[in-house]
TrEMBL record:
Keyword presence, DNA-binding: yes
Recorded superkingdom: Bacteria
Keywords for this protein: DNA-binding
Pfam families, sorted: AbrB-like
InterPro entries: AbrB-like (IPR027360), SpoVT-AbrB_dom (IPR007159)
Name of the protein this chain belongs to: SpoVT-AbrB domain-containing protein
MF annotations from Gene Ontology: DNA-binding transcription repressor activity; transcription cis-regulatory region binding
GO cellular component: a single term: protein-DNA complex
SpoVT-AbrB domain segment(s): 79-124
Annotated transmembrane regions: none
Length: 137
């Protein structure tokens, strides 16, 4: 059996994209194909499942600890930059919606400008916007 070249573990958006591509694979195969394995002296491949799962949690921007510890990372912080995904979608992550206290079902009116997108929150009471959020390209 030919020896497979080990790849560097994927992180962030690359990791999320690869996992989505491998949706029909087992979690061990996903971890391995994303670079989360080691090869022992005897040539046995061992999957680093905890590192893989922690990288997924970080990539999703989920913060499990309520306060960052002095010796650990505090989770991923919002970068205020997003890019168009391969399927054409523009995703605003949970870090931003949490910061704005948005809840599932909150509605927005989208207005497109030359180099900006404006989201105006729809007020459930009078269906008029009461908060404007602007993103400049």
């Amino acid at each position: 059996m030919p020896k497979q070249k080990k790849i560097e573990p994927l992180l962030g958006e690359e990791l999320l994209k690869k996992v989505k591509e491998l949706e029909n694979e087992s979690k061990e195969d996903k971890a391995k194909k994303c670079g989360y394995y080691t090869v022992t002296k005897n040539g046995i491949e061992r999957v680093n499942m905890m590192k893989f799962l922690n990288a997924l949690i970080d990539a999703e921007g989920i913060q499990l600890d309520s306060t960052p510890s002095a010796n650990g990372r505090g989770g991923r912080s919002a970068s205020y930059r997003i890019s168009v995904q391969s399927n054409g979608n523009l995703l605003i992550g949970s870090a931003y919606t949490k910061q704005m206290n948005l809840k599932p079902g909150d509605e927005f009116i989208i207005t497109l400008g030359k180099k900006h997108i404006r989201l105006r929150q729809v007020d459930p009471e009078d269906r008029e916007g009461d908060e404007a959020i602007e993103a400049t390209a």
